[in-house]
Amino acid sequence: MSAGKGAVLLLGAGSDMARATARAFAAEGHPIQLAARHPERLTEDRADLETRYGVPVSLHAFDALDTAAHAAFLSRLPELPQVAVCAVGYMGDQAESVADPGKAALVLRSNFEGPASILAHLANAMAARGSGVIVGISSVAGERGRQSNYVYGSAKAGFTAFLDGMRHRLAPTGVHVVTVKPGFVATAMTEGLDLPEKLTAQPDEVAAAILTAVARRRNTVWVRPVWRWIMAIIRAVPEPVFKRTKL
Question: What is the pTM for the complete model shown?
Fold first, then answer.
């Protein structure tokens, strides 16, 4: 460890939000563990973090969909992290998911089954140790099923419920669980979409929110608070009216 700081594991480390979060924790002196399907693509990120912040950085092969390998993945880490941030996700295309159940299954597994599996392994290991923080990046899309993205949204709704339940279960163990709901974020995944500027966060903004949430042991974080009220309004629309909308 570096200067008494616990290691931080980034799952889905190739994403823009994960990269920003790695920088935020490295700046605080935490050793960093970058886990992704193609860790060889993160060699420049590792060099930058080590040079810029003087912290040890390790790379690890991780496939969220290969749930049978999750226990072995965890056992190969240099140390059990003090903080684990799950930035795994795949938006997919709603029209393709409607037309092809196989593509819908990939969205569901990528956003719920895979993340839930690895976080369950981490939760048990951290609970046995008696400390740790798990951060799951969910989505405002899970607040209510809408025709425009209900496959992705349903997976995120399940993931949010999973994080809620895990937080409740782990409360007596010394392990804390944070749910992050970023709303729109300017990332490679949303590139090309016409996003409203006032509702769209930057990856560094998400990273700062995660850093604060971990330090203050917050439960649910809306990166831009306006989303809490937007989704409250959407949830409150009566079903007969809602069915006539194009959301």
Answer: 0.94
Q: What is the enclosing helix (H) or strand (E) of 180? A: strand 175-181
Q: Which residues contact 37 (CB under 8 A, 6 or more apart)?
A: 14, 61, 62, 63
Residue 99 lies in a domain: yes
Q: Tell me whether residue 1 is in a domain.
A: no
What are the distances in angstroms from CA 33 to CA 15, 46, 76, 109, 110? 14, 9, 11, 23, 21
Whether residue 83 contacts residue 9, with contact meaning beta carbons closer than 8 Å, is answered with yes
Question: Is 90 one of the annotated active-site residues of the chain?
Answer: no
- Mean pLDDT of all residues in the chain? 95
Torsion of the alpha carbons at 74, 77, 79 and 84, rounded to the nearest 10:
-60
232 inside domain: yes
3-state secondary structure of 134: strand
How many distinct structural domains can be found in the chain? 1
Q: What is the CATH number of the domain that holds 220?
A: 3.40.50.720
Boundaries of domain holding 113: 8-242
**221 and 176 in contact (C-beta within 8 Å)?**
no
Catalytic residue among 53, 90, 150, 152: 152
**Average pLDDT value for residue range 148-171:** 97
